[in-house]
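Lab meeting minutes (informal)
Scribe: AK
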Amino acid sequence: MFDRTIHVVDGARSPFLKARSGPGPFAASDLATQAGRALLLRQPFLPTDLDDVIHGCAAPTPDETNIGRMVALRLGCGAKVPGWTVMRNCASGMQAIDSAIANILCGRSQLVLAGGVDALSRAPLLYSDAMVRWFAGMMALKTPAAKLRHFLRLRPAALLSPVIGLMKGLTDPVVGLLMGQTAENLAWRFGVSRRQMDEYAVQSHQRALAARAAGHFAEIVPVVDGSGAVYPEDDGVRADASLEGMAKLKPFFDKPYGAVTAANSSQITDGAAWLLLASDAAVRRWNLKTLGRIVDSHWAGLDPAQMGLGPVHASTPLLARNGLALRDVAAWELNEAFAAQVLGCLAAWESDEACRQELGLPEALGALDPERLNVDGGAIALGHPVGASGARIVLHLLHVLRRRGGGRGIASLCIGGGLGGAMLVEATP
């Protein structure tokens, strides 16, 4: 547990917009700026009063290098407020929060804007190495005749087969597996069936729809594109999600034998999320009301081929350090990278063998109450803009706890590369 109180003052996020046939209507910095501006406008302090702006981003475009600083300036924080960017794959937004916590704990900062963003629809197409070498060869030539001969040696396949940046980003560079293939590993290991995955995915959409109807996504601020079109809510939630419809989709990552499909996986999405974190001194100075506090956090490493068990590896030590059992946690936000991954985590906690092998425990930790898990749906329905998701689940968890009467909750996610992150939070009564 932290030795000082880390307050969450407020937070906001953009709608999560599903990637479709091309670049979405917003750059990542646009989404972050609009969500951040709405958040800061309702505060009793000025943007220039912030001590730091920390932003997580897993896939910035070339013209958004150090997007944290870029957005800080666009938000009116001024030249003297530092802004910087962190990257921990799927947990980049949570890492930004943890970095803010570290600065507050050491006394370096009192008031910090932290969050994450990604516009995955704008992930670039890249030239292959062969094509890059061809361009380099062309530039080295001096005469028109030599350049013509070089051009005629070009094979169209080299030009017309670009490297898809998003697919590279979603592939583990050490074990060579797509993230979805690691989910297939968990499905095989724990006997998670295709029907169980699809049932969980349908539930995610149904819960998100119910939450929207009940007004449980108050943290969303509408965004407006350059033509004046307004985007008020997450657009990937499907009212028509059904087992029958999902059963028609073929496996994507392991076509002959797999069960993980696009429908029971998280969506490729654009979105941004922010939290305002403050010390006791900042709360007193500005007379700030708070959503809650961050109690503790934990990061863990594991086998990259079993990446989806990251929440198990990160949350279990967090529980132990704070004297908690699974049943003591009032609400959980477990990022839904894949239905197979979430269900695999639940199965691991219930397995004596897995708890011994993965966690060094003498027996199973137990069952997690499904009525406390992702009660308003998750990334399967809402989307997974990689850099933003870690911040989103922390923010939404605090809102869930507050409307349920308080208590403690855990936000956790698996992270590409074989990592897990978790935060223990407590809502303000």
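Next up, CB showed the second protein from the same session:
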Amino acid sequence: MAGKVKYCCMNVTILTYGSRGDVQPFLPLSLGLMTRGHSVKLAAPSRFKSLVEEHGIQFIPLAGEPEDLSRRLNDSGHNFIKMVREMMDHAIEIGADVLHQTEAACQDADLIIHTFSHAVGAHTLAREKNIPDIHIQTFPMFTPTGDYPNVTMPDLKFRSLNRLTHTISKQITWWTSLFGFEQVRHRAGLPKRKLYFPFDDDPLRPPTPILCAWSPNVLPPSSDWTGNIHVTGYYFFEVDRSYHPPDELQSFLDAGDPPICISFGSMVNRNAERIDEIVRSALAKTNNRGIVLSGWSGLKSQLNNNLLYLDVVPHDWLLPRCKMIVHHGGAGTTSAGLRAGIPNVVVPFTADQPFWGRRVHAVGAGPKPIRVKNLSVGNLAQAIAEAERDVTRKRAQTIGQRIRSEEGVKRAVDLIESHVSDWRNFKV
């Protein structure tokens, strides 16, 4: 192998898909790369065009509506096979358009960064273009370990069984990718294509790095991981000091004790009214005020002086002004709640949410999660009371301080640049 290749700036394409929580972490990461002189294109569902472009990041729209996928995943409950099937059906419906869009987005790329939904396709494209790729995950998916099972399953107590669930989920992902591509190819009249799984050993190519975009204080690295897996810390923006709250929000905050924030993101759909009634009753039972971030649920404000309904408010501004947050356990909302240093009460709906709910409880920053199908006024009120205990509040504060001291974006960018330099050396 020849001497070290001099590192230079790159054209980077980032491919992601899903709800806002799947897109937002890549905004500060994009800005971190751009600060180092790299050019970045971020490809995501078209609904996020304004969110991305307002930060000066070049945006590539992808077909499909993540709200539809979110509802389908919600309906699948906690069944991994059903969730994979729903994701595959959705991917087949939009697949041909997304294939063309991603290939256009990566046309001049020197590096492709991808998430779970793009892992096989993006890695295959990187191999065809003979360029490096990096996988970033906001929940453990392609990182087998005996410490815990696949995120959709409960802890099986035996390391061998936990590890087996990861192996099986990887294999299912690979099989569904092959089947899904064949379906898309036939529908769109595309030629045959050899697909590659990004985490198979290949002596002719350095291992694809996996960057885990969460805090090691929430989920530390596992001792049985390989050397290409790195826990970087969360990817946050700097706190926006320029945000000015609407008058109704500021007046509500000034009118009493810090409220509880209620945020179920994109997960609430047909159960919205039932969940809203439970939340309002539990807040009244525990003598708490609340701010409800309604998101895609379509909830309308109730006539109650102790409740304020809003569409969206920046978490980094709002949560430090709240006493706790009740949420669905999405990776993005969990990270924001923990960063704020306030207790988290997690009511998971589907996918990785039960896993993050268990992690919140494991680190002492909140009570045991309550699955949405089991949610009641009584158990939510009990969880709120537990979250108000001094021991929980102080532990949440400690976790928040640690997370705020991490430099997730910087560490990720350092690892990205290091891998590209090593990859170029490998190819010399």
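CB comment: Residues 1-6 have pLDDT under 50 and may be disordered.
No objections, moving on.
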